[in-house]
Amino acid sequence: xxxxxxxxxxxxxxxxxxxxxxxxxxxxxxxxxxxxxxxxxxxxxxxxxxxxxxxxxxxxxxxxxxxxxxxxxxxxxxxxxxxxxxxxxxxxxxxxxxxxxxxxxxxxxxxxxxxxxxxxxxxxxxxxxxxxxxxxxxxxxxxxxxxxxxxxxxxxxxxxxxxxxxxxxxxxxxxxxxxxxxxxxxxxxxxxxxxxxxxxxxxxxxxxxxxxxxxxxxxxxxxxxxxxxxxxxxxxxxxxxxxxxxxxxxxxxxxxxxxxxxxxxxxxxxxxxxxxxxxxxxxxxxxxxxxxxxxxxxxxxxxxxxxxxxxxxxxxxxxxxxxxxxxxxxxxxxxxxxxxxxxxxxxxxxxxxxxxxxxxxxxxxxxxxxxxxxxxxxxxxxxxxxxxxxxxxxxxxxxxxxxxxxxxxxxxxxxxxxxxxxxxxxxxxxxxxxxxxxx
Length: 439
Prior knowledge:
By secondary structure, the chain is an alpha/beta fold. It folds into 3 domains: 134 residues, Rossmann fold, CATH 3.40.50; 55 residues, no CATH class; 139 residues, no CATH class. Helices cover 43% and strands 23% of the residues. The chain contains 18 helices and 16 strands. Helix 1 crosses helix 2, helix 4 runs parallel beside helix 5 and helix 12 crosses helix 14. The longest helix has 26 residues.
């Protein structure tokens, strides 16, 4: 029986599942290991039982468990079939099902043979890229789960934001923990930038050693199970060198928000002596490096963002950028010290935009760059991210590309120090932390 009191709410994702409840598509919940996919399944089970679905109508299988780990596809089908209640709709929950060989056969057969509503989680995008497109012919909907946002971080760690009056008559926000201790909002944001948004951190507490142990476990599981083991199961031989994989991970983590390509990664690793020169010693080719990068994208460890020519209105094939799924994983890899704060907060803004439902690209206008173009079906925003707008030199640099854009869509600079002015010729200057707290 699920203890619903111990489950922290994640309404952003739960509401999406509820919206697709009792519809034909298989609900596929994807995301990096330990980002909370299993808990979201449990939240959905709680929702079902609270709205009248009987426990015997629900079948849950977690394929990380020894009970199910060695099952065949036929075994999965038989297990569910034996538990089917005649005349009742069944609700089927399959956690990390990609560990079962030919799992697609079982899902497809169950979908066809019984009256059921199916929910699946997976930690690798390969789950969707080939098997599903072949077997389910588009009859699935993907719900992409990310680590905790800053607002979720506050909630998971039992922090509460309260507004208080300042001496000058304005309003300021303070943060209080469950013991009533008061903290500055900036201080708690810095904790978020250090410890990140993996839900498990809330269980071990904001202690560096415990956090490092948890992050090490996530890193090892992603690399071993979702990349190296998966390649073996697929019968592929492209991503087999764990040392090279770590070097590429370290490179991408150190260069979040920078323009990179497979060729630039290979060249840099050779130049720094981390790889031998391919011409002489058989170092990996650009093609090989790209295979490793693709494996990291498929495991949701890194996300790629493309460049968009604002004037030409087309995506460019030139260098893109990569962001790491959780900033604490970068700290784990590179060390907990202040480094490259501008790109780190860019990383946070990128994933917040994804959570809010935007498609995100880098903007190119002439020889200048806009950090993010965020679009939905009926909305577009241009966003620059910088640590501070206090310096005139920085203001000129950050505002220049936005001023070149001739359309009337919203333009905003997000920063930790937005300065005294709230707007520059129609371009908004907003406090990044306040923006992250918005609904």
